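Notes taken during the Thursday session

The instructor put the following on the board and asked us to keep it in front of us for the whole hour. The protein is Sugar ABC transporter permease. We were told not to look anything up and to reason only from what is written here. First, the residues (297 in total):
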Amino acid sequence: MGTYRKMSNTVVGLLFLAPALLFFVLFIGEPVVATLYLSFTKYNVITSAKWIGFDNIKHLFADDRLWLTYGNTLKYVLILTPMHAILGLLIALAVNRNIGKGWKYLYRTIFYFPVLATSAAVAVAWQFIFSKDFGILNFLLGKFGVSPIAWMQSPQWVYVAVAIYSFWKFIGNAFLYYLIGLQSIPAALYEAAEIDGANKTQRFFSITLPMLSPTIFFVLVTTLIGATQIFDEPYLITSGGPGDASRSVNMYIYEVAFQHHEMGYASTLSLSLFLIILCVTVFQFSISKKWVNYDRD
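Then, after some discussion, the predicted structure tokens were revealed:
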């Protein structure tokens, strides 16, 4: 009887898991296997895939344009990851102060609403904002005596433009994660520390940061992965220009696959990006044990 009941529970459990497993196999597992196979082929969608062995991999290491886009992507990672991780935390700390619930609701709405807006639609508005001759940003800077800046035409300023747009559009994600993490910290810990004579700075470094470390780790991992896979911001704001100055690896993969129709080589590029993200993520998890605190007792 016990064995039968155990088997019945297993079958029921598998039935509940079946939709998720089916989704994983169809939309994650199968594309991964197909990408791995296509990376060893020459395939342009129209004709059948032709096995070419390691030619795509050889092409990858000799592709100067690919390494240029990897360099651009590294710049995005170095700019966007600390920006979202640090500024998102500062905004969450400001909103989490002892202010009225109505103000907190208003601030949450203001900072998170851009995340819900359609990227393509708001990008059109930001292209006008960044316009050198007619943009409101240069107009406001001109009031302070700043000469017009070629936000989308200068290889130096294009990263600043992408960073500004990314901050406005996506800072709400990090902000919301931090805010939830802050609100889950027991108030009793702060009360006890205050009774012991700890000031605000001491309470922040002794309570807030350690208790918030799992959230900080989550934000760092997701933000770094998102920055490595960046596509929307440079594609919609700068189209990868000027030249290839702001073109990311994901944009290059898109171009190779859907403009040049080199699906085999695009699959190889995708695998290279996947392996890099995997290695970086594994490294992050390996060092997280040294600073992430999961003990809330």
